[in-house]
Amino acid sequence: MIEQTPISLDSRDLLIIHALVQGGTLEAASRLLSRDVSSVFRAIKRIEKRYGLVLFNRSREGYSPLPVAQSLAQHGARIHDAISAGNQCLQTDDEALRGSLKITSTDFLVQYFLLPCINKFCAQHPNVSVEFDSRNESAQLWERDIDLALRPTNQPPSAMIGHRLGHLNYCVAGTSAGGGFGKDVNESVGAETQRPWLVPSGAISRHWSRRWVEDNKPSDAVCLGFDSMAALVNAVRSGCGIGVLPLLDNVVKGTTVLPQYLITETTQLWLLYHPNNTRNPMVRAFVEVVIDYAHRHLAEVVVDVPVPAIADQ
């Protein structure tokens, strides 16, 4: 008679290890697992004690996986993917999407890029609620309760699925609402010495356009600072002064571009989400709407481009 070898690890153990490797902290792992922090902590201690292993190095920054934990996490990832695929099979093609999406981006991109997309998405999926987090804090991208992030960056974070939507180009512009600008471009030359220059300040003072303005504006021109890029753009459009604007049609419409200033700086625009959301049908539906909008409003759209080493299958 052949004795049956008892199974030591079960799928729940592997899923917990996978979540902690992915999240890096107990808090992040608990969100991935929809469990409280203390239960994740106890589960890891139980697994380590049962098998006499140390799976993670602990530090103030979080949990750093040792090689054995990384190997076990790969098995947990396969279990997670199988469960996700099974859930997807249960959803029929004609079943309406239901639930909620939480999307983070800058206030400027929410107003001028995402809001034009939302009407189409809501019309197609009326049972999905959408919440925007428009705080200008890049750390928000790492919170696991965020489903999607739209980020202007030339260095997208690793360990995220990414769609590069294209590049944002820039110009210097103002409007005639505050005086000093004519409808003809030639009438606007010299207006940059008569009007304030609007620049990022406060929380966004490190934005590259502030340094560009300081290096290129007339020496006697004054600056007005804004800690919100959306407020800065709105102020330029309302005639408060001159500023660096992204070349989006709904941004520069109604403004006068100053051709004497040539800006070569460009910023990539990335739509990002966590690998655990790869098969989330609401995420995929929103991605499709945003990509369609980008096709029509940006010069370049490259879809399914993975942020290093992760592909969107």
UniProtKB/TrEMBL annotation:
InterPro entries, per database record: LTTR, LysR_HTH_N, LysR_subst-bd, WH-like_DNA-bd_sf, WH_DNA-bd_sf
Residue ranges of domain HTH lysR-type in the record: 9-66
Keyword annotations from UniProtKB, A to Z: DNA-binding, Transcription, Transcription regulation
Record GO terms (molecular function): DNA binding; DNA-binding transcription factor activity
Keyword Nucleotidyltransferase: no
Transmembrane parts of this sequence: none
Pfam families listed in its UniProt record: HTH_1, LysR_substrate
Similarity-based family: Belongs to the LysR transcriptional regulatory family.
Record's protein name: HTH-type transcriptional regulator CynR
